[in-house]
Amino acid sequence: MAQTYTVRIKNGTKSVKRCRIFLWWKKYTCIRRENSRVYYEKKECSRWEKNHMQRYCRRRNLTFEAVPTQYTRSSNYRSLFFAKYPSPTGKYRCAYCGKKKSKDKITIDHIFPVHCMEEYPAVRRRAALFGIHGSNDMKNLCTACMRCNQKKEAKMGIWILKGFIGKQPWYWPLRRILTVILVFFVLYLGRKIYMPVVWNWINTLQK
Ligand SMILES: [Zn+2]
Fold this sequence. Notes:
Elements (H helix, E strand, L loop, with lengths): L4 E6 L9 H6 L3 E4 L5 E8 L1 H14 L2 E6 L8 H8 L6 E3 L6 E3 L3 E5 L3 H6 L1 H9 L11 E5 H7 L5 H9 L4 H19 L1 H16 L1
Antiparallel strand pairs: 1-3, 1-4, 2-3, 5-6, 7-8
Bound molecules: zinc ion (ZN).
C-alpha cells in the first residue's frame, strides 16, 4: 500500500483563515483547539497531494506539517482493541496500576504517545525497535484506568516499560506471588530481632 500522509495547515506569518475557501474546496476539515487556535487537517493524502500543498503553503506563508497517516490517532482503535482482546468477565486490568475496571471505565492508552510519534522521527525509530510501525498498532495499545491515563499524559521513559510489562497477562499474578515470597523472606531474616519480643508477649498473656 502506498504511503499516505495527514496534512495539517496552520497559521504562519499569514492567517490560515484567508485560505479557508480553498481548503474547504480541497476537503480539509477545520479543527479548533481550546486556545482558539485554528488549523486545517486532511487525512490520507497522497505523496503528490502533500508536495502540492507544501508548495502552496510556502507561497502563502502558512505553516505546513505532514505526518505519515499510520502515526496519527485513528478513530476506531478502541473498538479494534476490544475486538482483539475480548474479556470473558467484562473487566479489564489497568496496565499501570493493576486495578480491574469495567469496560466503560477503562481507557485505551497509546504506550508511545501519539503526540510524540507524530512530532519526533527518533521516537518512531525507537518504537520500530519494539516492532511498532504505527500509533494504533495493537502492540502500542494497552488498557489504563482514567487516573493512570491522566497521570501518564504524553510521558515516556519508565511509563513505556510499565505499559509493555503491565499489559502481559502473567505480570500481575506473578507480582503478587513475588510480593508474598518477599514478605515471608523479610520475616525470616528478621526472626532474631522480633521473635524474643513475640515470646515475651505470649508469656505475659499466659501469666
Ligand atoms: Zn491505573
